[in-house]
Amino acid sequence: QVAEHGGLNIMSLNKFSQSSSSSSSSSSIRDKKVFAKLKLNLSGDYPRKNAELLSAQYGINLLLVGVALILAIAHRDSSVEEKDLLSFTTGLMILQLIWMLWYILVRRSQRNTRTERDVNATTCWIRAGGLTLLAILSLIMDALKIGYYVGYRLCLSASHVVYPVIHAIHTVAQVNFLWFHIKDVIKSFETFERFGVIHAVFTNLLLWCNGVMSETEHFMNNHVRRTLELEFKNITEGELEPEPELQCNCTTSTCALFSQSFTYLFPFNIEYHIFVSVLLFVMWKNIGRTIDVSSNRKSLVTKTQGLILGPILGLLALVSTIGILVVYITRLEGPREVHQSAISMFYIYGIVMLVVMCSAGALGLLIYRANHMPLDASKNPSRQLDTELLFGSALGSWFLSWCSIVSVLSSNSDPPHRWTNLIYSLLIVLEKYVQNLFIIESLYRRQESVERADPELPTNPEVSSVTASLPPLNGIDNQAYESPGGGSSPTENEQEENGQENGQVYGSQRKQSNVPLPVDSHVAESSNMKRLILKNIAVLLLLCNVSLWILPAFGCRPQYDNGLEEETFGFSTWTNVLNFVIPLNLFYRMHSVASLFEVFRRV
């Protein structure tokens, strides 16, 4: 019995030692995994985040220096002169030119390496219809500025002439860079490239701020002149600073023509720089990013058959907008009654426009609610930035509307446009709310599966469309890579640059199935009708946003002229609010146009 008891003790000890050794080994393996994961995070993700933070801080401080110079110049008696700001921005543009040249040379030296590309970064129509068109108008403005400054060269510093020349070179080089390299996902010299890209982002933001300040100064001088001529607003001498005059005569006979001409091009130059900043910011976010092949696909583009009501209503809104703009500007110079009737006309027009836009956006949201398609949760920096910019730029317009509402409800005066101003301001809040929801849901909604009964789709059963919602198939070439030799893969080039036959995007071939698929013609017709309605809504909202961009961009700004807000907040406070908010509102409208075109392509 003692021997048996001793044997049992030995066996239990052996089992305990085995269990303790196995638990210690498992804990050591677990610790090794934790340390390996921590080491991986510190060696991989931490330097990238650190480089992002450092480069972002560099860009922000670069912008703040420029804004400080702009604010100092706005004060007439400051020791800071305009030539100091022009010299600073010229130096920033030259640095960006050097970086872009270096980047292009490095890419050419790495021609035989495969470079990832983000096909969602931008589209061909954005570069051609948006970027290139705005750049051409900016170049025309530079040419007019050169002619103007040459006429006054005797009393202006050399920086006034050098600046538009460097700006024109910078514009041409930057457009060329964006056309061919905006989709690059940089994986070499990442830290240095982050600083280069963010330098370009904030250089364009500073040029945007400079353009906004110049345009605002020109508009405010005209507004104050008109206000003093009408003599029905009280502006004290401390609130009004006259525009300085040059102390020499123009040596040519075209200075006045140049001065009047390039002021009309300010809105396009402003939109160009903020547009480029957004594109470059997407490129900055893509540095070091691992591309998800399944989501790195071009969206299906269908035909435009049945687009009638949306384009007709949109063109009608556009034509009426031009008429309202001409009548408003001409009648604003008239007597008090004519002046107030012009403001009332604007608000009535705006109310009709906003009611139509709210109704169209609400109809689109109802269609999406009835469809029950899941949202696409794949990572897409470009789409995420679109969402953030829509909400961020809408804040300015919302703030402006609520200021107007407070003024209408608290004002002691009762002009004819008082209550139309209230309705217009409330509709502005509602319209942006509905439109933001419609655009974001359209961009994030997963696209429907392709149905063979759809007459807009190809009839060849061996070719299937590739959408972001489909998983990657075996044998599909990775379009996120360039082919050796520096050019993009043939599939991507055919999809994006050549415009695809019949406006459609095709992917790789699948084996033809011999099993016939049942098709419900009623479901297919219902789906086609929904797509058609959504496309018409997108076109209508696009043209309406263009119309609402044109009015404030070319001087139709009743917030300056109706007098209610100035009575409540004071001339200086209210003009400062408008000078900050109106550029955001202009950007919101132009960004909505770009987003709605993407919605139109995705439906």
TrEMBL record:
Molecular function, one GO term: proton channel activity
Protein keywords: Cell membrane, Hydrogen ion transport, Ion channel, Ion transport, Membrane, Transmembrane, Transmembrane helix, Transport
Source species, domain of life: Eukaryota
Region entry Disordered, spans: 451-503
Residues passing through the membrane, by range: 53-73, 85-105, 125-149, 161-182, 194-213, 270-287, 307-330, 342-368, 532-551, 571-588
Membrane topology: Multi-pass membrane protein
Subcellular location: Cell membrane
InterPro entries to which the protein is assigned, alphabetical: Otopetrin
Cell membrane found in the keyword field: yes
Keyword Membrane: yes
Gene Ontology CC terms: plasma membrane
Pfam families linked: Otopetrin
GO annotation (BP), single: inner ear morphogenesis
Protein family membership: Belongs to the otopetrin family.
Listed name of the protein: Otopetrin 1
Provenance organism: Poecilia formosa
Phylogenetic placement of the source organism: Eukaryota, Metazoa, Chordata, Craniata, Vertebrata
